[in-house]
Write a structure and sequence with these properties.
227 residues, 5 helices
């Protein structure tokens, strides 16, 4: 029994640092590859006036394969390799000065696109519009608010939002938030110099913690039944 108790203590000590910094996955080198949809530019207002924006992003993390990504702010775009911090998308985002619900909504949009319209350029553009609308406005309305869009991909954006708006998860196991400049616990996410992204999450930290906790509880239950 003493050995089993000691094992639980050791595992808990190893898990504590992971839980204590659950919001931070780690720093990575990220490269972005932007492109416009096949039918040209999109015109919309953020924060004032109409601008041309990229509606299709891919990123490579630590020189790995290119994967789908979504821009979540309006800063400068660079295709150079830059260091970012990956954050889990959950309630912990509030400790970094962000509104967690906005990013959870954006992650739900990204999930719906990936699960239903992967590699469809029109829906990728629509999903990007829906992500921006989720981040910048409280009510989803592409015709009003801080973010506005009026182009041929608006219908796809509305369709995706209507599919997810009543099913926003408490955390995302499939997407992470990549922020630049890099940060540590206790700091606030900055909005310069480069764009931040939703990236496909290679390390689903919250799920790992839940699995670890479930495993420990299972071990305790088995041990008690054997007594």
């Amino acid at each position: 029994m003493r050995k089993f108790g000691l094992l639980l203590i050791v595992v808990a000590m190893l898990a504590f640092p992971l839980c204590a910094t659950a919001g931070i996955i780690g720093n990575v080198d990220l490269k972005a590859s932007p492109s416009y949809p096949p039918n040209g530019y999109a015109y919309f207002s953020y924060p004032t006036g109409y601008n041309n924006w990229v509606l299709d992003y891919h990123v490579s993390i630590n020189d790995g394969p290119w994967s789908e990504a979504f821009c979540v702010e309006g800063q400068d775009l660079t295709t150079a390799e830059v260091q970012y911090t990956l954050l889990t998308i959950d309630a912990s985002l509030s400790t970094f000065g962000l509104t967690a619900l906005n990013f959870l909504e954006a992650a739900a949009v990204a999930d719906y696109f990936r699960n239903n319209y992967f590699n469809n350029n029109n829906y990728k553009a629509g999903a990007q519009l829906a992500v921006w609308e989720s981040i910048f406005d409280t009510d989803f309305d592409l015709t009003a608010g801080a973010f506005r869009a009026s182009n041929e991909y608006s219908d796809e954006a509305v369709l995706i939002w209507d599919a997810v708006k009543y099913n926003i998860p408490a955390y995302s196991n499939t997407w992470a938030l990549a922020v630049n400049p890099t940060i540590v616990s206790g700091q606030t996410v900055g909005n310069t110099p480069f764009q931040n992204y939703l990236v496909y999450n290679p390390v689903p930290i919250p799920g790992a913690i839940w699995l670890l906790g479930s495993g420990l509880l299972g071990l305790v239950a088995v041990r008690r039944r054997r007594k």
